[in-house]
Fold:
Amino acid sequence: MPPTQRRDYYEVLGVGRTSSADEIKSAYRKAALKWHPDRNPEKKQQAGERFREATEAYSVLSDPQKRAAYDSFGHAGVSGVSFDPGMGRTIFEEFQDIFGDFFGFEDIFGGGRRGRGRTKRGADLRYDMTLTFEEAASGVTTKIKVPRLEFCEVCNGTGAKAGTGVVACQSCGGRGQVHYQQGFFTITRTCPACQGAGQVVRERCLECRGQGRLEREHTIELRIPPGVDSQTRLRVPGEGEKGGNGGPPGDLYVVLEVKEHPFFERRNADLFCTVPISLTQAALGAEIMVPGLSGEERLKIPEGTQTGTTYRQKGKGLPDPQGGGKGDLYVTVRVVTPTKLTREQRKLLEQLGATLHVENRPAERNSSFFEKVKDILG
Structure:
């Protein structure tokens, strides 16, 4: 159905824009039962269109993110979920909690390959990886070994012993599904004998014990961009487990953990550190060297600097892994008071102290404020 002819999804399901997820789910269940083609044999084509329309509406309104995009931008905000005949099986995997295998979705949306069962996407895999702070800051290209299930080379994934092959399942006649007639409905279920494959092996492969797959370690070259942080998740498309019956492979997700740095504290892309300076450096000013990600950095300390003062080194922080530039480096200085002095040092400090005068009494209080308090208290 072209985008210009699409009805409002809320109108399709007969719900309001403030309806809850349960209300939307219930409305979809009623619409699917009403418009299932097997229940409308005289208007099968029209019913099929209405059935698809209701399912498309539910696929958007049942997903909080898609629903928010639809509420803001209409059909243009969810254009990526438009239906076509080749998408039927992928879309309907999301609705097993509502109908299970109750409806023969392949018969409605086409594309089912009888005798081989449904294609199945491979499972996604997760790989946890620990990086040093320096590796995360600069980025790194490395190789990882990921254990995953791969097709058995001996039987080429069939699960059958060499020379025996496979035969059509007698329970389902090679269709991978069994059908039951119940009232208005044709109930379709996965064949329990062949698990939907439509075929069974005569003798099991000794290498994989009839499973058709074995666990193997697969080496993958991985590029980690600079500036990543803990819990960053990198997706490697197609590097998950192989799909069944010619289905697409799953994806690999690499979850990163970055070790803390002994000197720097990280806050997003900014770095923070504290460096000590002497009394004379604070009083007279100085140019000191402070640690940085790519070596030491020069920092000018103005004369009369107080302890706790923070200076910003622009662009000396971590890079943004999304390409948004670099963060900043914030250096806080701490004036170190010597605890042991030689006689000469003590004498020089005493001479300096005699020339300096610091008021140690508390700052003068606001007399007008205390006068008002006296007036109130009488």
